[in-house]
Specification:
Order of helices and strands: HHHHHEHHEEEEHHE
Largest sheet: 6 strands, antiparallel
Number of strands: 6
Number of helices: 9
Low-confidence stretches: 97-102
Radius of gyration: 22 Å
Helix content: 25-40%
Distance between the termini: 75 Å
Length: about 240
């Protein structure tokens, strides 16, 4: 009798959800980024019937896209992450997965940036950096960019950013970059900022905005357009 190759597994719920996300404008690559896996795995939702472990996460991501109109990949990744269970090996250990670059080097230095689109959804990509810096007892500094009219203190004012020698960066679009904290001045306690972020429900933009307001550096309605966070290990 002729031998027959086993039939390929049928695409499951993960593939259906991926189809829905693609219909909403996402690519397989962006779906992979949202669930923090390699794009080849998303293809295997269709060819090998994989992805059951990602159904809870993809369900919530799809809901966020449809009901809240969220499209920022980092924000969606933040929604997905708590609902993704790491697979285990036959010995019961947690399996290794291909992950993004290390947030913070062994020396304690790390940098994260968020542009206009990420800022609008709370700069979610910066939250893991701040959380890890807090866990390691690091210091941090940040640079913000906003319209010049948003600041209450004059450019280069020592009251605004004392001890920072870096010049204020003036942009052609009438925005201005200003830096707060440095290794020379001691910077800020990452744990304090992590608590601030948690108090804002994970919204890094709101946490930094509130600090700037509390310290009298900006006007209430001043919009942050870009944000950079830097970390280092205190000596």
């Amino acid at each position: 009798m002729p031998s027959h190759a086993p039939a390929a597994p049928q695409p499951g719920e993960a593939a259906r959800l991926a189809d829905e996300l693609q219909a909403a404008g996402f690519t397989k690559r962006s779906i992979a980024r949202i669930i923090d896996r390699d794009p080849s795995l998303v293809s295997q939702f269709y060819t090998r019937g994989k992805g059951a472990a990602f159904v809870p996460a993809l369900t919530r991501v799809l809901a966020a896209v449809r009901t809240a109109g969220i499209t920022d990949l980092d924000a969606l990744a933040g929604i997905a992450a708590p609902h993704i269970t790491r697979r285990t090996t036959t010995s019961g250990a947690r399996a290794r997965v291909r992950t993004k670059a290390v947030l913070i080097t062994p020396a304690g230095t790390g940098t994260g940036r968020a542009g206009a689109q990420a800022i609008a959804s709370g700069a979610a990509r910066l939250r893991p950096l701040i959380a890890e810096a807090a866990r390691q007892g690091l210091r941090l500094a940040f640079t913000i960019r906003m319209p010049k009219s948003g600041y209450t203190l004059a450019s280069g004012s020592r009251t605004d950013s004392p001890g920072i020698r870096r010049d204020v960066v003036q942009r052609a679009d009438h925005t201005e970059e200003r830096s707060y904290g440095s290794a020379a001045t001691g910077g800020f306690d990452a744990a304090d900022f992590a608590h601030r972020v948690d108090a804002e429900g994970g919204d890094v933009t709101a946490a930094v905005h509130r600090w700037l307001l509390e310290t009298g550096r900006i006007h209430q309605d001043a919009p942050i357009t870009h944000l950079e966070v830097r970390t280092w290990r205190p000596r």
